[in-house]
Design brief:
The protein has 188 residues and is α/β, with parallel strands linked by helices. The protein has a single domain, classed as Flavodoxin domain (Rossmann fold, 3-Layer(aba) Sandwich), CATH 3.40.50.360. It is 43% helix and 15% strand. It has six helices and five strands. The chain has a five-stranded parallel beta sheet with strand order 2-1-3-4-5, with helices on both faces. Helix 1 links the parallel strand 1 and strand 2.
């Protein structure tokens, strides 16, 4: 199973469209996929209490993260995607990364050797820093990040604009195929 988590607060936007392309390509490689939108969901930020180290669960259970975290645990591949907001990732995806990172680490590095990577949509600038922000989650979690034909970024401002970025779409599709292919190889 490959999941694509879209950190945009907007439904139907460019980031969602880009992740759908990656997941479609993963399906072509035989993977089951699921799209998870953070739009309309509440993911509270990590408060750094570190109680998860003792209890092996996040003490914040009254929001939408616990079921998403469970899907992350079961997934073979995880794609995290965000639009660039003021040169950075959205608060929604950052809250997910922080809490899932601490929580997963407290349970014994549960994401280690899973496959995945970041995807970013920018109007113009900020993509490299934002890409790195998401990439650091994968690296510190011990995940395996396959390459693509370029960094997994695409350009677009208005809804649908990203579909005009042919190189960005090709990169996203190639990345989706690589995630599915590598996850399958690791299971064999």
């Amino acid at each position: 199973m490959v999941i694509g988590i879209v950190g945009s607060p907007r439904k139907g936007g460019n980031t969602e469209l880009l992740v759908k392309e990656a997941l479609s390509a993963a399906q072509e490689e035989g993977a089951e996929t699921e799209l998870i939108l953070l739009a309309g969901k509440t993911i509270k930020p990590c408060d750094g209490c570190r109680s998860c180290r003792e209890t092996k669960r996040c003490r914040i259970q009254d929001d939408d993260l616990p079921p998403i975290f469970e899907k992350m645990l079961k997934a073979d591949g995880i794609i995290l995607a965000t639009p660039v907001y003021f040169g950075s990732a959205t608060p929604e995806i950052k809250a997910l990364i922080d809490r899932a990172g601490y929580w997963g680490g407290s349970m014994g590095r549960v994401f280690e050797n899973k496959v995945g990577g970041p995807m970013v949509v920018a109007r113009r600038a900020g993509k490299n820093f934002t890409f790195a922000q998401l990439l650091f989650f994968f690296m510190i979690s011990g995940m395996i990040v396959p390459g693509s034909t370029y960094w997994n970024v695409a350009f677009g401002r208005e809804k649908g604009d990203v579909l005009k970025d042919n190189e960005g779409i090709m990169t996203a599709r190639n990345f989706g195929k690589k995630v599915a292919w590598l996850a399958r190889k690791l299971r064999q």
